[in-house]
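tool=predict chain=A
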Amino acid sequence: MFIDELREKLLHFTLDQRRAIISIGVVAVLIASFFALSSRGEAVEPSKIVQSISERVDAPILVHVAGKVRNPGVYPMLAGSRVNDALVAAGGPLPGTDMSEINLARKVVDGEQIFLGTSNLGSTARGKSGTSSGKVNINRASATQFESLPTIGPVIARRIVEFRKSNGQFISIEDLQKVTGIGAKTFARIKDRITL
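tool=predict ok
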């Protein structure tokens, strides 16, 4: 009976309308099949997902804030915190501190040291004359101080400072090779003249 009524109603539709109805029916069956087959996967308890995510978000990281800040020290921070957050935790910069060399918006990582202000590298960095009384600290040096190294010109020096601003401090002196323009040969020439 039902089929006879359905057939009777379908005869009143034009050919294009019948094709559209059949197409919609086929698409609906395909979608239902897809969801039925994809839901056969292993069920995961929502509480385990929430617990895993909250462990990662709530786990504190430790950041060492040093240099020209009111209260230097090691501070616990939440994952995803920014350099600015670490500086605020350390009481902020001392008056007159040069903030132009630091990216306040960069995310901090566990175990990182943030050094604020310039060190006394001008007196210890190797001069253009070739005399050396110390090593250039790659985590604190300015572009001008990098230029005192052999084969490092103003372009590469700026790249090093920009790389440090974007990616944080170098963990090892070998990390300097991650900067575009510093390959194995250049690194070999400067490795004995740099430090962390």
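Residues 174 and 181 are 14 Å apart (CA to CA). The chain has three domains: 2-31, 59-117, 120-196.
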